[in-house]
Amino acid sequence: MKMIENEMNVNVPLEIVKASDIEPKEVKWLWYPYIPFGKVTLLQGDPGDGKSKFMLSLAALLSKGEGQQTRKYLPKDIWCR
User: Fold this and answer.
1) Least crowded by CB within 10 Å, which of 6, 40, 56, 67?
2) Phi/psi at 80 (nearest 5 deg)?
């Protein structure tokens, strides 16, 4: 393991790993294949596309425990592309 110095002059360990040594992991999906469970997801679109409404609706459904059946609430044009 190699030590590098960052911007704050603190030594931090740097581990170099070859991509061929990385074991693939199965991805669990909140909504297959659009939103992986427990991963960072970016939502982009033009102003007025309904991004905020979509995320608020998603949060409301998940907070009620309806995460497993939420695909039926998506507009058809979102999941049929």
Assistant:
1) 40
2) -110, 20
Query: Looking up tokens 């905020």, which residue turns up?
Result: 52
Distance, in Å, from the CA atom of 33 to the CA atom of 71, rounded to the nearest integer, reads: 11
pTM equals 0.54
Give residue for tokens 């679109």.
45
Residues 7-45 have pLDDT tens digits of 666 677 888 999 999 999 999 888 888 888 889 999 999
Q: Outline where the chain has alpha helix (H).
A: 51-63, 76-79
C-alpha distance from residue 19 to each of 25, 33, 38, 57, 80 (Å): 13, 24, 22, 38, 33
Q: Which of 39, 19, 34 is nearest to 71 (CA)?
A: 34
Rounded Cα distance, 22 and 72, in Å? 36
